[in-house]
């Protein structure tokens, strides 16, 4: 074994597993430490009665290429499936209402559907139209998504459409979320066209007469679930230690919670954000660990299809003002037909962070009952065949205003620590492709630093 290529990876989620793959490809001998008893981190696929149950992420954005490239390199590209689309709904004013045709990420781009929709009052519609004449809101300093959208489009469009759609992606609230770190594309659009409505419209390809709109969606997944990806990455690891918590990392040195120490040529941190501070002992890492994270509980419920209200589409989001404990409901069997056997339905509901603390001490059965009660306020469902509850406690990093500065300060500090790199959802994006991207870059930095030091 080439002594120069001894690499340690801390954390066995998608970030750590991808880092293991890229390090192995670069010729390294890879050791991976994982604190829990399984690899995969937030990715967890379970099979039951012919259903493919995703307990964490269920797919990823197709337009971000790195993960698809990785899947292709692993020879899994034949198993890629694309999400289905259909009518999008929002539960607002105690009713499921269709999103106006032409809305992109909650931003209206078509005139007549916006005029005809019953989602907003006339006042709200006119206020949204002011976007066409208002000056730019972003002036070079980070602001919250809430401030940006409320100023451009007014409160009605934000509360009924944008907030439920965008906040769900980060399980956060728009007034916390940094525009620079979460959706910088809106800054680019505003800089270019000033009006968001005109900018989003320009980005939407025109529908040609007689051509059916695409039925396939923007997300990709794997036919047998994302757990398959984790298993395909496993052979990249030469030494895998599960139930092995890393206590600290210093230059070229890993110390385990049991006190054992080992030296490596390169170390890549891919843990959850809360551990960066304790492991590195750097003030900038402590800052990242202390940044806000949110919790959610997801409940998967399997049904006979006849027991679920039949609607076209793949699910809906729920406006906050409705006071429902759920933030969204995905009709997984429609979004991802491979996830349910024929004539069966699979629903996944998300319980919002405000309701999580009260539920934490309750049993899975009690949580599932609660979720079904909330769900039945919105749509008809019968008795489920089974339910599966998953608690995601403190797991979702919130990219608050100023996030980029914290990350920059951390990365500058870390670059002074020889042989140590970090990657993962706290840094440059929470999506699976972002995590894989950051793993790939961390590996190339570690390899470049090693090569330079030889
Ligand atoms: C409910 C939910 C749904 C989501 N849905 C999607 C989706 O559909 N699409 C999408 O793109 N993204 C989605 N995301 C986001 C995405 O899943 C995560 O950002 C991503 O999986 C994070 O991967 P990671 O490897 O960085 O972290 P993790 O998966 O959290 O892995 C970190 C690992 O480090 C280990 N660890 C921690 N401390 C130590 C230590 N001291 N020593 C050793 N090991 C340690 C942990 O046990 C864990 O296994 C979702 C997130 C959640 C919570």
In short:
Helices cover 35% and strands 23% of the residues. By secondary structure, the protein is an alpha/beta fold. The model has no long low-confidence stretch (mean pLDDT 93).
Describe this structure in words.
With 454 residues, this protein is of the alpha/beta class. β16 and β17 (326-331) form a beta hairpin. It is built from 17 helices and 20 strands. It has helices spanning 14-25, 65-73, 111-116, 122-129, 145-153, 155-170, 179-182, 184-193, 196-203, 227-233, 276-280, 283-290, 332-335, 356-359, 364-376, 403-414, 432-453; strands at residues 6-10, 29-33, 45-48, 51-54, 60-61, 80-84, 89-92, 95-98, 216-222, 239-241, 246-250, 253-256, 261-263, 266-269, 293-304, 315-318, 326-331, 344-351, 386-397, 420-422. The two termini are 16 Å apart. The protein has three domains: 3-42 and 227-291 and 400-453, FAD/NAD(P)-binding domain (3-Layer(bba) Sandwich); 44-86 and 215-225 and 293-397, Protoporphyrinogen oxidase, mitochondrial, domain 2 (Polyamine Oxidase, Chain A, domain 2); 101-203, Orthogonal Bundle (protoporphyrinogen ix oxidase, domain 3). The strands form five sheets. A seven-stranded mixed β-sheet has the order 8-7-16-17-18-15-19, sandwiched between helices. Strands 10-2-1-14-20 form a five-stranded parallel β-sheet, with helices on one face. Strands 5-9-6 form a three-stranded antiparallel β-sheet. The mean pLDDT is 93. The radius of gyration is 23 Å and the shape is globular. 35% of the residues lie in helices and 23% in strands. The chain binds flavin-adenine dinucleotide. Flavin-adenine dinucleotide is lined by residues 10-16, 33-36, 41-43, 56-60, 245-246, 270-272, 275, 279, 296, 298, 392, 395-396, 424-425, 430-432, 435. Flavin-adenine dinucleotide binds at residues 10-16, 33-36, 41-43, 56-60, 245-246, 270-272, 275, 279, 296, 298, 392, 395-396, 424-425, 430-432, 435.
